[in-house]
Design a protein that fits this description.
Helix content is 38%, strand content 23%. It is an alpha/beta fold. It has one domain: Vaccinia Virus protein VP39 (Rossmann fold), CATH 3.40.50. It is globular and about 40 Å long. The relative contact order is 0.13.
C-alpha cells in the first residue's frame, strides 16, 4: 500500500511539474518571438553600444567574484566581453537567434575570446552543465512579463552557487505604464529573491546611469545565503 501511495505521489508531482513547465514554455515562446522581431527590425533602443559604465567601475574596483559568470539577456554582449578575463569565464545567454549572432560578430576579434561564449537559449528552461559564481542582470528583469518574475527568482536560485553574488541594475524605477521595459522597484526584487535566501548587501542609486536612465536606476548587490 505504501509503495502504491509513493507511486501515486510521484505521478502527481510529475504531472504538476509538467504542467508548470508547459505553462512557462508557452510564456517563453511568446517572449522569444517578441525579441527576435526587435532584433530583426533593428529596434534595439536598450543597447548602449558599449559596456555599462557602472559595471566598468565595479570591475576596476575588483570587488566582483571570480569564476563562472552568467549574463542573461546579454543582447549584443558588450558587458559579457567587459567582464571576461582569465579569472572569469562568462556565458552570455539570449533567447534571440539574431541577437546572439550579432554578439558573436561584434566580439569575434576580442583578445579575451577564449574567456566567454554566447548561448542561444531560454533562460527559464536552459540547463547548463555547471552553475555560476556571479550573475549579472541588466535590462533583463524589466524586460520579462511581471507574471514571470517569480520564475526568474527561482532560476536565479537554481543557477547561482551558495554564497554566489547576483548583480541587478534596477531600471526603470520611475512611474510608467506598460512595457517592456516594465516598471520595477526594490520591493519587486525582494519579493522574488527573499524566499530563496537572497540578502541584499547594498542597494544604491546608479550615479553612472546613462541618459534618461539617470535618476531611474539603482544598483543592487545580493548574496545567495543558502
Amino acid at each position: 500500500m505504501e509503495d502504491r501511495r509513493g507511486e501515486e505521489n510521484h505521478s502527481n508531482n510529475s504531472t504538476i511539474f509538467s504542467s508548470k513547465l508547459e505553462k512557462m514554455q508557452g510564456l517563453s515562446d511568446e517572449y522569444s518571438g517578441r525579441w527576435e522581431i526587435c532584433w530583426e527590425q533593428g529596434d534595439t533602443g536598450w543597447d548602449l553600444g558599449q559596456p555599462t559604465p557602472i559595471l566598468l567601475q565595479l570591475l576596476e574596483k575588483e570587488t566582483l567574484p571570480k569564476g563562472r559568470v552568467l549574463v542573461p539577456g546579454c543582447g549584443a554582449g558588450h558587458d559579457v566581453v567587459a567582464i571576461a578575463n582569465p579569472e572569469r569565464y562568462v556565458v552570455g545567454l539570449d533567447i534571440s537567434k539574431t541577437g546572439i549572432k550579432r554578439a558573436r560578430e561584434i566580439s569575434s576579434s576580442s583578445p579575451s575570446a577564449k574567456c566567454f561564449e554566447f548561448v542561444e537559449a531560454d533562460f527559464f528552461t536552459w540547463r547548463p552543465t555547471e552553475i555560476f559564481d556571479l550573475i549579472y542582470d541588466y535590462t533583463f528583469f524589466c524586460a520579462i512579463e511581471p507574471r514571470m518574475r517569480a520564475s526568474w527568482g527561482t532560476r536565479m536560485h537554481e543557477l547561482l552557487k551558495p554564497d554566489g553574488e547576483l548583480i541587478t541594475l534596477m531600471y526603470p524605477t520611475n512611474d510608467r505604464d506598460g512595457g517592456p521595459p516594465f516598471k520595477v522597484s526594490v520591493a519587486d526584487f525582494e519579493e522574488v529573491l527573499h524566499p530563496w535566501g537572497f540578502k541584499a548587501t547594498s542597494i544604491t542609486d546608479n550615479e553612472l546611469a546613462v541618459g534618461k536612465r539617470k535618476g531611474n536606476e539603482k544598483l543592487g548587490r545580493w548574496k545567495r545565503c543558502h
